[in-house]
Amino acid sequence: MANLYMLTGFPGFITSRLFHTLREQDSSAFFVFLVHPSQMKKAEKQTASEHQVRLLPGDITQEDLGLPPTEVERLKESVTYFFHLAAIYDLAVPKEAAYSVNVIGTHNVNRFVEKLSRLKRYVYFSTAYVSGEREGRVKEEELDCGQQFKNHYESTKFEAEKSVRALQNVPKTIIRPGVVVGDSRTGETAKFDGPYYIMRFLDAIRFAPIPYIGKGDNPFNIVPVDYITQATSYLAKAEKAVNRSFHLTDPSPYKARDVYRMISEQLLGKTPKFVIPGKVAEFALKARPIRKFLDVEREAIAYMSRQSDYDASQAAEVLGEGGIRCPDLAAYLPRLVQYFQEHRHDEEKRTPIP
């Protein structure tokens, strides 16, 4: 009997890319996407030519994911793999919105997957940044170490992962990506956020002397989306991945200062010459006119100056058996920058500055 994959978070970028990876590896499979009604038109456009896909309007913040009882009964007997990616990823998200989607939404998904009689694996997308403000080495099996958090995104993803870990009698795999960027082969991405704020900031001051922001002596963990989807699809079926958590992070990350310099040199042909303290930059970005002019979120600065060192030895061990490895940032950064240069004025890719 063919597998039925159910995914939340469609038509989001990672979910869309994961779908294509899963379909390539399991051509006989069928797919069900739980789509928020506000995203249905976009989802329909993306799947217009797909014959093994069903789109279900739903909402993870509601009981049974907002699905009618007849649909729930049908899915209970047919879903074999469930991938939960739907979340609010905005670093500046208000607490109430983040809690509703990331925590309550995950609780509802957890209760739903407990009903699935044919379930082979529940794959939950957490984030490496459930580590919050921890410093030093963070291991994949660790979660609650009394840490504080930089924003509501981190704290709510932490609470959500705790609830997934607490599930009994559900074969699960927890994925903790680092900062996800575009495809390492094409540079393609859906949004210019995360590390792309560096590009947006540098683009805004391209005619001025270029400063470093903070010391930047911490590791800055960037991973391309194609590595994330390949690794996730492999871990979803690997027996060694059952009931374990995996850091999908760069095992040899560059320091934030080096990432910033490489982007500046690639984008502008300039090497930064002086340093603006990180706290000064954060204070300046409290002013909305400055944020708008520099085209950057204030919350993004923290990730240039404070990141943990993520141990990914478990992921490397299991993925190594499938020949999957994270590529070196320096090798694919030119493609990321080129894609940004070609699409920098595409408003659909530019997250608004609050």
UniProtKB/TrEMBL annotation:
Indicate the transmembrane segments per the record. Answer: none
Under InterPro entries, the record lists: FAR (IPR026055), FAR_NAD-bd (IPR013120), NAD(P)-bd_dom_sf (IPR036291)
**CDD domains assigned to the protein according to its UniProt record, in alphabetical order:** MupV_like_SDR_e
List, for all copies, the residue spans of the domain called Thioester reductase (TE). 7-231
Gene3D superfamilies (UniProt xref): NAD(P)-binding Rossmann-like Domain
UniProt record, GO biological process: long-chain fatty-acyl-CoA metabolic process
Gene Ontology MF terms in the entry: alcohol-forming very long-chain fatty acyl-CoA reductase activity
Top-level taxon of origin: Bacteria
Name of protein: 3-beta hydroxysteroid dehydrogenase
Protein source organism: Marinithermofilum abyssi
Lineage, broadest ranks: Bacteria, Bacillati, Bacillota, Bacilli, Bacillales
